Amino acid sequence: MQLVKKFCAEFIGTFVLVLLACGTATVLGCSDKPNAAYILTAVAFGLVIVAMAYSIGNVSGCHINPAVSLGVLINGGMSIGEFFVYLIAQFTGATAGAAILGALVGFNTSLGTNGWFKASETFAGSWKRSLLIEAILTFVFVLAILGVTSKKKFEKVAGLVIGSTLTLVHIFGIYFTGTSVNPARSFGPALVKLFAGDATAMGAYWVFLVGPLVGAAAAAIIFRFVIKTKEED
Question: What pLDDT, on the 0 to 100 scale, is given for residue 100?
Answer without folding.
Answer: 98
